[in-house]
Fold this protein.
Amino acid sequence: MDNKLILPYNHIQTAHCENGVATGLLRHHGLEFMTEPLMFGLGSGIFYIHIPFLMVNGGPAVSYRSMPGWIFSRASKLLGIKVNRRKFSSEKEAYDYLNKQIQLGNPVGCQVGVYNLPYFPAEYRFHFNAHNLVVYGKENGNYLVSDPVMETVTTLTEEDMLKVRFAKGPLAPKGHVYYPENVKQVSKEHLQKSIYKAIHRSAFDMLNIPGPIAGVDGINYTARQIRKWREKLGPRKAGLYMGQIVRMQEEIGTGGGGFRFLYAAFLEQASDITGNQKLLTLSDEFTKAGDLWRASAINMGRIFKGRLNEQKDFLESADMLDNIAAIERAAFKELRKIKM
Amino acid sequence: MKKEDLPQDASALVGVTREVCYVKGSDGKYTSDLSTGWDVKKQALDNAWDDIKERVAEAAAQVKNGEISPIFYFMEVKLMDITLLSGYTGFWKWTIKRHFKPSVFKNLSDTKLATYAKAFDISVEELKNFHG
């Protein structure tokens, strides 16, 4: 390979890495209208789930978004785009394949683990394997990297790149490389249709998945757990659990308020594109939900800030979540009914 | 959240990057803006690290008392659990649990020690000579 190969890829910074890679790659392939909120909405990214018995970093496993990889897959399917995905068992093959794509002039998305990502702040380097970035070239043996959560582009050595592509554990990337194929222009009508389909899908995910742990029901489930935590785990551990919820909800990548502001921004854009005023009204409901998630985080913060806390603080937090669940349930019921 | 309410608190991100948040601009429309951090979640992250430090200190004390092997200690240092360590080393989980016993650790072959050292990104000497 030449000493220098820089592909004409425009770095964009987004709240969430998967939205960012997907948006950037689709823009690169000519879909200039794509934005992060639109990608998130078309990919039906909004979600809630509390998986019982599973622990993440010693705390409860809650998530405010759908499974890693689904946003790009769902959005592409709606827009009639194929996402070419490759995973590898051999590091050598994975290495050769990435180099070949760059030589072919094709910027690609890579799934990586963040534990060995040198440009991340040390405090953020946990064993989290579903981070995404774009490789858009190579210079002096280093990969040129557009990581959507970073303000500017960055680089990775060949050795570091292999390490992060072959991180082990849950959601191990296995060298996962992906890029969109056959990207055609999307007509306004097609886009409008896709928006409605995606909204109905999110409404289904939030309202109709059976069982108590997923969707809006999952928020009530977490509230019920919170009421029991202090007695069951003791004040200290219960406080740490609350901290974990706040981190999953607000940490880098969510756009604030557990992705609810991002979804509100999507509904605003969706209203623009479709001319449906009702979507704008419902956008306000998600702004309200996002604000309440932020208020809940502040309340939880009071619990884990000092190590002194009382049962009534936990009850208050649980009530706040039940209130949020009620607002989101009503909003998604309206979205479920929405028609072109 | 309104644009003017977006927190700009000091956090671990300072000097590395700022994060994108979605906020309402003065025209009532959504826009994105950059934030340096928020005290509430900084506290949550700091607490998580305090907890990790406590667990590491506890593991070091256990190694010192001869209750557990250095493999357990370095697993904690590297924020791993047994599942993750199994992924990096290729050893079964029950094998790793056995290697936590100081009596078993003492007789581990150099190849096995090297596998652990590689997973922890340290030298075999560091692994062998950690006494708490």
Observations:
- Chain A touches chain B through 54 residues (CB under 8 Å).
